[in-house]
Amino acid sequence: MLFCTVRHVRTRSNFLIGVYWAGSIPKRPCILGSMTLMPMPKRVRSVLLFFAAFQLVSLSVFGDSAAFDWVPTEEEIRKYRRSWNPFSHGPILISAVDIQPQGQLHVRPFIYSQIGEKSYGNTLSFPTERKDGPIHLYSVQHPFIQSAYGLTDHIELGIATSLVTFWARDSDSFNKGKGGPEKVNTGVGDTSLVLKYRPIVQDPDTWRPSITSFTQLALPTGRWFTGTEKPPGGFSPLGRLPGTRSGEISISEGILTRKNVKPFRVSAGVYYTYALPGSVGTQTTYFGDVINARLILEHILDDKRGFGYNIEIVGLHGLTWRADGHSINSGQQSGFDVLGIEPAIQWRFGDSNFLGAAGVLFTVAGRNALDSFYPNFSLFWYWSKTGKVIMR
Which of 52, 109, 338, 346 yields a CA-CA distance of 20 to 30 A from 320? Predict the structure, then answer.
């Protein structure tokens, strides 16, 4: 079994993080990172310390999964798996809270589109107060491909990427009958690497829910390899899991929770996203950080067929500051807000390991944002090395 102890040494200008392996403690530590703290503000230190902590967790996971002490017992997991939880698609707009069993894999193609011709001003308002333009935007991920594998019964690794197309027109000119500049672009989207860890599994005999931590690293592979441009506003459609700026390196941290109470399943999650500084020409760009929030209610009507409907609520909030303390010079510098609601249905294809869901997300309120609606369609295919697929 592999254990490690973290030691830190603070000098006048540096904070060193080292790892000492039990049973073989060297005179000098193996240095994971050296981070200058002065004169950086507290927010910079928080971000850098998070990177170091993420690296340490990764080393622990891949070195020996037993290094985690805070995990559900085998009896708690068995009790949960014997409880009511029909094999079905589940929510569309939140990453699954209860993770894959060890050795189980899913692949998910997800077609997601956005149609937006109106926008909201600088005051949070409803669709009755929206105005035309300034951009007509039609965007689609065709498809977004996501896959996840249960490394253990407590840890899940995931990866996702997409092919993206958008068409946009300047509606100020368009509405005056002057045509207007058009932009059309197709290319590979961003790639996301995800680590999920579930320290608490729900108890069917009490109100205790499952709680899962979510860590995502988004990489602008489309911009790096195919020159994919950003859609107007800089965001992929509102329902991206979670919503992050296109074409930027970013880290997202989230907390997810879920509770099953027959015939309902309720899931929720909150994510915080920090994007590293970008660049346009010779200028360094700083966008505000982003908070995502999701709340989903599933009502399963037919357990055998995995048939039911979902009500999914999604919120996206652009902050007016950054975790690293830099002032914002790009994007909506006064922040933005978007709130959407999606009705959806889910089903199982016969007795197969294929599951489907479809819905439309409608914007119901916004500030400094497009008023859009988002038709979407999702498929799951499951595989298990045991030959028997278990619902998450």
Answer: 52
